[in-house]
Automatic annotation (TrEMBL):
Signal peptide bounds: none
Protein name as it appears in the record: P-loop containing nucleoside triphosphate hydrolase
Domain of life according to the entry: Eukaryota
UniProt keyword annotations, A-Z: Hydrolase
GO molecular function per UniProt: hydrolase activity
InterPro entries to which the protein is assigned, alphabetical: P-loop_NTPase
UniProt keyword Heme present: no
SUPFAM superfamilies the record matches: P-loop containing nucleoside triphosphate hydrolases
Length: 376
């Protein structure tokens, strides 16, 4: 009777621990092969998430519920907290190729943190609808009026137009993001059928970037001899200088791993991390995507819930390192003075250009008169 009870207790856990089905799980510890060591590191990380997920999820969710911008800030450079310029909300931007699972990830955040019962709040793309997010969408995933952070869902990037896409991402990072603002790549024209306007919404500075990658793209490129363009696009986005905040890489979230076999899933994670030049465990999370109906393939998966919550927590920790000190009257004076000097420099440069063109015209007139005299 006791043995049967123990088996029933273990079934819910092993049901979500897909990595435990990897053959020769224990023999990887004694192997000296680099690939085996990488696999063992990932397995150990998954074991860590699994062991903490049952009791640590509520504690981590509570930290996010009571979080205010700047709560995780640490004194740096001799500055005090009252001298820092904290925003009203920290802004986390989701980026990635089209169809990577950004909108599904947002819905999962609502389900885990907003206690919405996994009700879809963001429309996702699928094979039948071919829908794609065309505007910037701000999401209060906590569904709370006291939340200290927001998540922005963005348009999926086109790997065939990465130059134009990276220009748009750079604009988001430099000028900020605003709810309902159209995402335009290159010479794209605003779709009037969207019937949306960003007027009146607050423009927010992006504090941190989370990059979403479809493991199926990695699997097809590296292990099936498929098109390598998508992986090249992933690398160009990941190493785009504009999305590196506080000299740190963006957070990497891997999706659609549940469509692969366990060993394929591990190898794809190791391959993409090696390709991007980052550790296989730090700042990388393998999170199962929602189905088209807005539910998980395995209902109430505690490991996925905790991994997602920790990923958001890590993103906010990193975000609080991006805040700048408040400007003093000296900074304002120097800023105004520099603007005035730049305006004067521009004015005199324009004036010099006008006089140069005027002098060139006078020279042409004089030369014309001289040539006419000689002809006479």
């Amino acid at each position: 009777m006791t043995q049967t009870h123990q088996q029933n207790d273990q079934e819910p856990n092993t049901r979500f621990c897909w990595w435990k089905t990897v053959p020769d799980f224990t023999s990887l510890k004694t192997s000296s092969s680099p690939s085996c060591l990488s696999i063992f590191k990932v397995l150990r990380e998954m074991e860590r998430l699994c062991s903490i997920s049952e009791h640590g999820l509520d504690e981590l969710k509570h930290k996010l519920m009571v979080y205010k911008a700047g709560d995780f800030w640490l004194p740096i450079g001799g500055l005090k907290k009252e001298n820092m310029d904290f925003p009203s909300e920290v802004t986390v931007l989701l980026t990635g190729l089209s169809g990577s699972g950004k909108s599904s990830l947002v819905n999962l955040m609502y389900g885990v943190l907003g206690r919405s019962g996994l009700i879809p709040f963001s429309q996702t793309s699928n094979e039948s609808s071919k829908y794609s997010t065309m505007i910037l969408e701000e999401h209060n995933v906590l569904r709370s009026t006291r939340n200290g952070f927001c998540v922005y869902d963005s348009r999926g990037l086109d790997f065939n137009r990465m130059g134009e896409c990276l220009d748009e991402v750079t604009r988001w990072m430099t000028e900020g993001v605003r709810h309902n603002e159209p995402c335009l790549f290159g010479e794209d024209v605003v779709d009037t059928s969207l019937n949306c306007s960003s007027d009146g919404f607050v423009r927010r500075k992006v504090n941190y970037v989370v990059m979403v990658v479809d493991l199926m793209d990695v699997y097809k490129a590296f292990f099936c001899g498929g098109d390598f363009k998508r992986v090249l696009a992933i690398k160009s986005l990941f190493h785009c200088p504009s999305i590196r905040t506080s000299n740190a890489d963006p957070l990497l979230i891997l999706t659609h791993g549940d469509m692969l076999k366990p060993m394929e899933r591990l190898n794809c994670r190791i391959k993409i991390c090696s390709y991007l030049g980052i550790p296989v465990t730090t700042g990388v999370y393998d999170i199962v995507s929602l189905t088209e109906q807005g539910i998980l393939p395995e209902e109430a998966d505690p490991v996925t819930y905790f991994a997602l919550t920790e990923a958001i927590y890590r993103a906010i920790l990193q975000s609080d390192r991006t805040h700048s000190p408040k400007k003093t009257w000296k900074d304002c004076f120097v800023d105004i003075l520099s603007r005035v000097m730049c305006s004067l420099a521009y004015f005199f440069a324009m004036l010099s250009r006008v006089f140069q063109e005027w002098g060139d015209k006078n020279k042409i007139v004089e030369l014309t008169k001289v040539s006419l005299r000689k002809n006479r």
